[in-house]
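User: Some background: our group keeps a shared notebook of sequences we're curious about, and every so often someone picks one and asks for a predicted structure to add to the entry. Today it's my turn. The entry only has the sequence so far, pasted here. Could you supply the structure so I can complete it?
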Amino acid sequence: MRGLFLVQVVFSFAVIIFSSSLYSETYIDDDWEVLSPNWTDGIITSVIKDSNYLYCGGAFTNINGVSANRVARWDGTQWQAMGQGFNGPVEKLCINQNGVLFACGSFTYSGGNQRNRIAQWSGSNWSAMGAGFNDGVYTMSISGDNVLYVGGKFTQSGSTPINRIAYWNGSTWIEPNLGIGSTGDYVSAMVADSNGNIYAGGKFSSAGSVYANNIAKWDGTNWSSLGTGVNSDVYALAITPDGKLYVGGDFNLAGGINVNKIAVWDGYSWSALDLGVNGRVNVILPVTVDSIFMGGIFNYTGNGIGPNHLAWWYQGSWKSITNGITGMSEQVKTLFLDINGNLYVGGSFYTAGGKLSYNIAKLKKPPVFTVTYTADTGGSISGETTQNIMRGNNGTEVIAVPNSGYIFNQWSDGVLSPSRIDMNITENKSFTAYFTLWNEGQPEGEGAIEGVIEGEGFWEGEPEGIAEGEGITEGEIEGNIEGIIEGEGVAEGSVDGNNEGTTEGNPDGIIEGVYEGEGTVEGIEEGTSEGEGVEEGESELMAWIEGETYIHKVVGESHTFVVHIQGSHGNVNYEWYHCQDYLCSSPTIISNALGQELYFEEFSIEDTGWYWCQVSDDFNVVETNRVYLHVSHGLSVGIVARIAAVLLLFICLYSIKRQTVY
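Assistant: Of course. Here's the predicted structure to add to the notebook entry:
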């Protein structure tokens, strides 16, 4: 037993060690709002809301200091009792399309009036619905045609046999074609789809005359199974906008495939939802196809994210929701999303997001920020130019597209790549793409194009383009050409040019040179002395950091920034900088960088910020593009911790082996 315990400990440790979360927190602890800070004395099993009130049902008799028997409502400021409540637990509340509120459970009275496990709220008290039922009613659902269906453990309504499922025709309860299951079975979850079908889940092996393993479908006339069903109890059913049925409970097989407490039925076959969760699922709440909340008794999703009984399947991956809930016998039993996107959570817990909440709390919708992209003269934006993004989420790709005759220059925040995806949005932002005319894009450059345009002729124009920017060999070409054109002859140019260039000094060669020799010597000298010779004329120093503009890492990971250069002359020096803000005035100089490479062995949160390098050679000093590094807390760790986890596992296995031998 000791060896088995050690394996369990190591397994839990390994789940933490080998898991990593690369997501920013969309929800934070401060998003929780407390509705009951002063104690609620029983579990809350159902929460629902209309335009006026939030309604709660459960096993409590006191909610936040207000006496209320198993049902209460919140007006936004305080809790209120609802009539005389009930003498037993409420399992479920629902509201039909006419705004009528229903309650079901294990109760038999409201005050002195008999209410057998089902009742309707009149606005001031609870009224009976026919003869009710002889045993617990655990779940309810409203069909598309506004019919109320109920399921539970009951076998009669008054003297009429009704097996565990029924619907209300306005005056009496009716059983759908022989009902569900046999002695000891029950229905604990129901949901209606847009086609008029009702799905029922629970603990049973038949529906009507059809074999159905814990889940079945009623189409208004007949029962049918969903493949081979699931191998244990179903507690939660929900349908997403794309028509898929999500099923939660205590099972680990669905249609014969391995699943962990949650599975998906697409109308034809079963599939797992990633690696599922490690404990019972009580409730599933779809918001969109890509956003589904779940509550239950689990502590971890299958990939190691610790949701503390409240999980979120978002855009194809699990996400944790703050610190979840905590308490002695904590579990989430009910979830409800209001029209403003706020999530209400009910169950058995003391805190929500670290705040004393006592069985009910509100998780406010995170703020939404707007990111806009505009194009300056000379281009346009491809992609969604106005993006409304929930806090902590990422935007979608946009591309700055230059018009004909233009080239992309940079974004207003200094990003040099025309394509960008802005990530981890926590404020409103606006970016402008700047473009440059093609012939202006080569610094005064410029080269042959401007030379021809501004020059007085082909020969003189081309050297002038080089002179101002610097073409290939300004001094040499201009000197030679002017020497020939302005000189009195080749011979004189050769003799006088050489003599005068030598006697009067090289600088006079370009200005006063009349001959080929003088022009050549002086042109080279002046080009060099004025920075227009080898350095400026031949090629300009360029430097850039390779890779993406935005880099995301978690604590403990490593990375190397690498600078590439082009057109350098002489000795090249590198000086690396770091700053939290893009336009900071006092960046930090990184002293331990090795030339072209800046290496981080293990990142920490403090390493987040902008990085760039200043590169210099014998003639110029340039700066690279700036790269943003975001370091977040995650569950991934360095190789040492991973090795330690493996060693611990081996130790436990060795311990078991020894106990087996001895």
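Suggested note for the entry: The CA atoms of residues 153 and 186 lie 4 Å apart. The chain has a mean pLDDT of 81.
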